[in-house]
Amino acid sequence: MTISPELIQQVVRETVREVISRQDSGTDAPSGTDGIFTDMNSAVDAADVAWRQYMDCSLRDRNRFIQAIRDVASEPDNLEYMATATVEETGMGNVPHKILKNRYAALYTPGTEDIITEAWSGDDGLTTVEFSPFGVIGAITPTTNPTETVINNTIGMLAAGNAVVFSPHPRAKKITLWLVRKINRALAAAGAPANLVVTVEEPSIDNTNAMMSHEKVRMLVATGGPGIVKAVLSSGKKAIGAGAGNPPAVVDDTADIAKAARDIVDGASFDNNLPCTAEKEVLAVDSIADLLKFEMLKHGCFELKDRAVMDKLAALVTKGQHANAAYVGKPAAQLASEVGLSAPKDTRLLICEVPFDHPFVQVELMMPILPIVRMPDVDTAIDKAVEVEHGNRHTAVMHSSNVNALTKMGKLIQTTIFVKNGPSYNGIGIDGEGFPTFTIAGPTGEGLTSARCFARKRRCVLKSGLNIR
Fold this sequence. Notes:
By secondary structure, the protein is an alpha/beta fold. The protein has 2 domains: about 30-245 and about 450-460, 3-Layer(aba) Sandwich (Aldehyde Dehydrogenase, Chain A, domain 1); about 250-435, Aldehyde Dehydrogenase, Chain A, domain 2. It is built from 16 helices and 20 strands. The chain has helices at about 5-25, 40-55, 60-75, 75-90, 95-110, 145-160, 175-190, 205-215, 225-235, 255-270, 285-295, 305-315, 330-340, 360, 380-390, 405-415, and strands at about 35, 120, 125-135, 135-140, 165, 195-200, 215-225, 240, 250, 280-285, 300-305, 320, 320-325, 350-355, 370-375, 395-400, 415-420, 440, 445-450, 455-465. It has a 7-stranded parallel beta sheet, with helices on both faces. The chain has a 6-stranded parallel beta sheet with strand order 1-6-5-4-7-8, with helices on both faces. Helix 3 runs antiparallel to helix 5 (about 95-110). The longest helix is centred in the N-terminal third of the chain and has 20 residues, at about 5-25.
């Protein structure tokens, strides 16, 4: 019996269509397909093989692979799908801002250009210091910025020559697996080694612990709350921790109040206040506080004035010293409706004037509720900003034309990001100078992470040669 080439091609085409259809529908792929594994040990083992193969690839190869990731992650249909599916699955944030964040992560995360060689030459020869990979990196990603973090981490970690094993938040499982599959297919089409980017079918605490303790995982990167950061720092491995924040925004009497109001609303309402960099409370000098509120109300804010309603809302959205996860990232109008208020559907932010010790001020809410606290003067405002930031060293914002006041706050607050006279998202490279990142390592000191943060420095010495000066 002779089988015609045409029949073989037809069978292959039908099989490929069936596989792609099954994977795009979200059906679990077989273990090891497109970077998805049934267990963490298998995922790590596969990534370990992959990065060793990756060492044989050139920097040109790396650039080609990274461009493939940029292309698939920034494709308009994929951007739309990621944003929509993330909001649907997690119940957090809003679609337009997630599209923007994913696009910035895909197009502007630094690649191999970030790993620059240092060199010294002289009578005794030539010494170079170069960035080399750790090998397999274990990366823990949050539910607040799941796809942005995967895109951002993948580009940086692969640019440094590593493979990465992701342990996503279970509440963002579907969209994370979808993205890992897309990235793997793009890498395969570009000729990359298989399994440079892997994860597990069922994210869990047990799988995260297995990843953190696996001997082949040489570095851990955690983007999330203080609990997971403490866990990676206690692992005995090289660890990068991006923890919580509670960013204050100080406004003094020298600020451009109309601009400050617009910038604060833009920053605090961004993705329903999900970013840890977003303004979480405003400390306004008393003489301009009323004007600031007046200007903020022009930009889609809804003011809460009844103290009883504020206290009711605070009891609903906080649990002790933490935000109630059920309300994190919800729309402002929905939060208002929870306490019987009818705010316009397009309300961007709920604002209210409260005392400094109010839960809205002291707890990082990550929802579009922005408390305003009156301060007698700028010096007091700065001191209170340092206090309410809780030593997280994450992000702070100040609106002022007083260089001395800006300098004082910058020195005292010691945050990784300090935005002056702009919305908070300028600090992560969105509509501001500098590259974007969604892993901001204040606790471990790397700051805004990029490829060089995921690499080791190695010194190579040649004695008595190659000095041609």
